[in-house]
Amino acid sequence: MEKTMAKKRMTKKERMRQRRRRQRMMFGGGLLLVAVVFTVILLLLGSKGCGISKAEGDEVEAVPSAEATEAPTVEPTPTPEPVPSVDISDINSRSGILVRLSDGKVVAEKDADAKIYPASMTKIMTAVVGLENLSDQNETITIDRDTYDRLYTEGASLAGFGAGDEVKAIDILYGVMLPSGAECCVGLAQHLFGSEENFVAKMNEKAAELGMDSTHFVTCTGLHDENHYTTVRDLTKLLSYALQNDTFRQIYCTSEYTTSATASAPEGLHFLSTMFKKMDSPEVNGGEIEGGKTGYTGEAGQCLASLAKVDDVEYILVTAGAPGGPSTEPYHIEDAKAVYNRIQAGKQGSAADTAADSQDDQATTETDGAA
Questions:
Q1: Which pLDDT does position 41 carry in this prediction?
Q2: pTM surpassing 0.90?
Q3: Where do the DSSP E strands lie in the chain?
C-alpha cells in the first residue's frame, strides 16, 4: 500500500513537471511568434520604402541621378552687329555695292545687278586662278615677244617687263595687280595652261564655283569685249573669296613693290598701285582704305574694287561706270572715300534705331500687359 501511495505521489510530481514544461513551451512559442511577427512587419516596411508604387511616386520626390541633374551647356546667342545705315544713291558711279566682309551683309547698293564691263577688275580673277595653280611662286615665267607686241599695239596697260624677260611668278602676280600689267596676265596664262583661252576657261569655271551667275570672261586682261561682263554684286563674291588667300591679300593691300632683276631691268621694276598713287590719303572716318584694284575702258568707265577697315570692321566696295578717264578726276576713288566716310555715322544711326525699336517693343509689351 505504501508502494502504491509512493507511485501516486511520483505521478503527481511528474504531472507538475509536465505542466511547467508545457507552460515554458507555450511562453517560448509566444516569444517566437512575437519575433516572427515583428520581423515580418520590418520586412514589409522595408519593401514599401524601396519599391514605390506609381501612386506613391506622385507624392514622393525621387532623387534624380547625377546625369539627369547636369543641364546641357547653352552658349549665349551673340547679338548681331547692326548693319550701318548708308546711302550710296548719289555716288558718281552707275553701279555700286557695299558689303561687310565678315558675314557678307549688304550695307548699301545701287543698281548692283546691272550688267557692267569690269575692265581691269578682271585681274582679281586672273590673280586668283594664278595663285591656285602655281606650284612655286618663285618659278620663272617668260614674257612672250609676240604677245608683248600685240598687247602694246592694242593699247593695253603694261607693267614694264621687256619682251623675252624671265620673271619670277611672284613678281608677275604683283605686276598683274599693282600696275595692272597685261603682259603679266597673258604671260601667266600661257605659262600655266598654254594659252589665254585655256586660262580663261579656268576663270569661268571658278566664277561658276563661286556662284557668279551673271559673269562671263573672255580675256584675262579685261580688254573690252561685248561678251566679257559681270555685275558689281558678283565681284563682291569674287573679292570676298580672294581675300581669304593670304598671298592675294598681301599683294592687294600693297601700295608699292620692287621686283627682282630682269634682263631689261637689272635693278628690278618699281610698281605703284594704280589706286594708291591717285589717293591723297587712305584715311577715312574711323579707319582707312587697305587695298584696291582699279579698272578703266571707255565702255566700262572708271571702276574700283576696294577694301577698307572702319572701327575694326572690314568692308568691300565695288563700283563701276563712273564718268571720266585716265586724265580726269578719279571719280571712282572719290566715290570710295565718300562711301567709307559714311559708315561710322551710319553705324551710330543704326544703333540709335535699334535702341528706339527696343524701347518701342518694351512700351508695346507694357501696354499689352496693362490691357
A1: 65
A2: no
A3: 95-100, 106-110, 140-142, 166-168, 256-258, 270-272, 283-284, 287-297, 301-310, 313-322
